[in-house]
């Protein structure tokens, strides 16, 4: 938010690539130094993870994009929609059943978010759309993680590391092909600023 608001940084995708690269580097060095533990790569890992890497990059980029397009209070309000989306996806995908009291509580949260969003004088359709996409990706990430991943196998650090590894190169390719990287490069002061962070 700091980069987008104060420095008008032009690219959430480029920032996301930097965060993925930092995630890979930090977790790999931590694994080498036995600070964190996750398994070495084998052919079964992509099968175990799919579709989590796609959801991960969607969550990552939409989260950064929505942060750049909305005020922080409105971003926080609209992120509340993650809760009912998670509940709905758990019912559909995981077959969970929830008592009426939990469903009523979730809809009360949703109603509060609608009321708060209704008073937004700086309505930004693109920002709302991106943050709601981010809510959907966040909910899907939580649900598919519960469905597909045995924490004893990969663990949270393994999931983070391999999601970033699988998606950093495709995201760089997308950044080049859409002109996103050129936009950042033409604003070299921003690139230096990212390197500092």
UniProtKB/TrEMBL annotation:
Pfam family, one: TPT
Main location: membrane
InterPro entries from the UniProt entry: Sugar_P_trans_dom, TPT_transporter
Residue ranges constituting the Sugar phosphate transporter domain according to the UniProt record: 6-178
Record membrane topology: Multi-pass membrane protein
Gene Ontology CC entries for this record: membrane
Gene name, Swiss-Prot/TrEMBL: Slc35d2
Keyword Membrane annotated: yes
Record keywords: Membrane, Transmembrane, Transmembrane helix
Protein name: UDP-N-acetylglucosamine/UDP-glucose/GDP-mannose transporter
Cellular localisation: Membrane
Transmembrane segments: 12-29, 72-93, 100-119, 125-145, 157-178
Domain of life: Eukaryota
